[in-house]
Write a structure and sequence with these properties.
This protein is mostly helical. Helix content is 70%, strand content 4%.
Length: 197
């Protein structure tokens, strides 16, 4: 297994680790989580650990693709597992944040629906031996999602001091970009779906 694929597997493994760390009932188990204040924002060690796990996953997302292209290490396995790992870490985190009411449940619903539609279009195109690459809007969606999640995991640190809900602003921006990129993707590739109507 080459290095880019190993990085993708690390991102995949971050999903269950993140989920377990997030969901452990620390208070019920009598586990005390130390916390501290940055400017006016309360942060716990747990917040920092979750942020670090997600940041690691996000960095592998950038590195695996970069290394695969640079060193000509693109593989069928990598093409298969990379988008799965991306969606799992992002959508799992969004669902957990929604379960804690840090974000609206509408956010993951919209984003998962968009991803499902785009994946369906890619599947139809693949059956016709057409490979559909990610658009710039799709990449902007992913980047905005990851930035928003990082800010959310750190309790809107720094921005909270100024009374600016940057975490909510960026996550809703990511949701809007997700919808726009999904519509753009459908319009540009609708021939693969409409031709048999």
């Amino acid at each position: 297994m080459n290095l880019p694929n190993k990085l993708t597997i690390i991102r995949l493994l971050c999903v269950p680790v993140f989920t377990i760390v997030y969901l452990i009932p620390y208070q019920s188990l009598g586990i005390f989580i130390p916390s501290f204040v940055v400017l006016s924002t309360q942060l716990s060690i747990l917040d920092v650990v979750l942020f670090c796990i997600f940041l690691l996953a996000s960095l592998t997302d950038y590195l695996d693709g970069y290394l695969a292209r640079k060193n000509n290490l693109v593989t069928t396995f990598g093409k298969f597992i990379d988008p799965i790992a991306d969606k799992l870490i992002v959508n799992t985190t969004l669902l957990l944040l929604a379960s804690s009411q840090d974000i609206s449940i509408v956010v993951p619903i919209v984003m998962i629906a968009r991803d499902t539609i785009v994946d369906a279009i890619r599947l139809v195109a693949a059956q016709k031996n057409v490979v559909l690459s990610a658009s710039y809007l799709g990449k902007a969606k992913t980047a905005t999602q990851m930035v928003a999640i990082c800010i959310l995991l750190l309790n809107n640190v720094f921005f909270d001091y100024w009374g600016l809900p940057m975490d909510q602003i960026v996550i809703w921006l990511a949701t809007v970009i997700s919808v726009v990129s999904g519509i753009d993707y459908f319009i540009k590739n609708r021939q693969y779906i409409m031709e048999s109507m």
